[in-house]
Design a protein that fits this description.
This protein has helices at residues 2-46, 102-118, 137-148, 153-162, 164-168, 173-183, 188-196, 199-214, 236-253, and strands at residues 82-85, 91-97, 122-128, 221-224, 227-229. By secondary structure, the protein is an alpha+beta fold. The protein contains nine helices and five strands; from the N terminus they run H-E-E-H-E-H-H-H-H-H-H-E-E-H. It is 54% helix and 9% strand.
Length: 265
């Protein structure tokens, strides 16, 4: 019996040994197949314009905005615009923003720093562009414009952006705006009348018409001398680089001063 069973046992052991010897090869083969498939999948999904979800993609502040130029026949917007700096500056920055837009609140201190750095060397224009999906943004723009009728637009604009999280989450947001109006020294009765009137609303509507005609797709949108600034450049360093280049180009195009013919050597 021992002699008869031995060959059978050895045969089974031999087969087991052979199977074990092939295991590493099978593992390597599986890994190679997985790597090839994975590489193809990543390539397919990373190609520009690929959209396997079947859902149309929309521009967003995180992807920037398509480079575009302000058309010369675009509506002028509210006139006079809310502007700071020098009216004759060679560089004009025009911002379209929504008071309820989180990205606009983040960009607000950046643009304030830019205005502080360049002062009268630039002209800065703010345009209202409230989105319909934001339930308080149009009223906030109207509140800011009403403050502007007392020469306090920038004060109210700063209050609204700086405290955006507080008033957007509060059902009594209009009372909060009234508190802001008192803090910045407005005549409250006149401000409330202007908020309820048509003048402030018309200014908001005129800004929105200009933005739509230009093709504003995201907020904030910033244009420098009529050219869209990429969203990725909406930081202090990026804006300084672009503005400095434009100022340099402008200064190189200025005519050379006339020679003083009365000067003596």
């Amino acid at each position: 019996m021992e002699a008869m069973m031995k060959p059978g046992i050895e045969g089974v052991m031999a087969k087991t040994t052979k199977t074990k010897s092939n295991a590493p090869l099978l593992i390597i083969l599986c890994v190679l197949i997985a790597a090839v498939f994975g590489g193809w999948w990543l390539y397919s999904f990373s190609k520009p314009g690929s959209n396997t979800s079947g859902i149309a993609t929309k521009p967003s502040p995180t992807t920037g905005q398509t480079t575009q130029t302000v058309p010369p026949d675009a509506p002028p917007g509210a006139n006079p615009p809310n502007q700071s700096g020098s009216a004759t500056a060679s560089v004009t920055l025009e911002e379209f923003a929504d008071f309820q837009c989180p990205h606009c609140a983040v960009t607000h201190p950046i643009l304030n720093e830019i205005k502080s750095i360049y002062g009268s060397r630039i002209k800065f224009i703010f345009r209202n562009f409230p989105w319909e999906m934001h339930d308080k943004s149009y009223d906030a723009a109207t509140a800011a414009e009403a403050a502007g009728m007392q020469g306090k637009f920038w004060d109210m604009q700063n209050m609204l952006f700086t405290n955006q999280r507080a008033w957007t989450a509060d059902p009594n947001y209009k009372q909060i705006w009234k508190d802001y109006a008192q803090k910045i020294g407005l005549n409250i009765n006149k401000w409330e009348e202007d908020v309820a009137g048509t003048g402030a609303k018309l200014r908001v509507d005129d800004d929105k018409k200009r933005g739509k005609a230009i093709g504003v797709a995201v907020t904030p949108s910033l244009y420098m001398n009529g050219q869209a600034v990429p969203f990725t450049e909406l930081n202090v360093d990026g804006l300084r680089k672009i503005i400095d280049a434009e100022l340099q180009k402008s200064s190189s195009q200025d005519p050379a001063p006339a020679a003083n013919i009365n000067s003596t050597k």
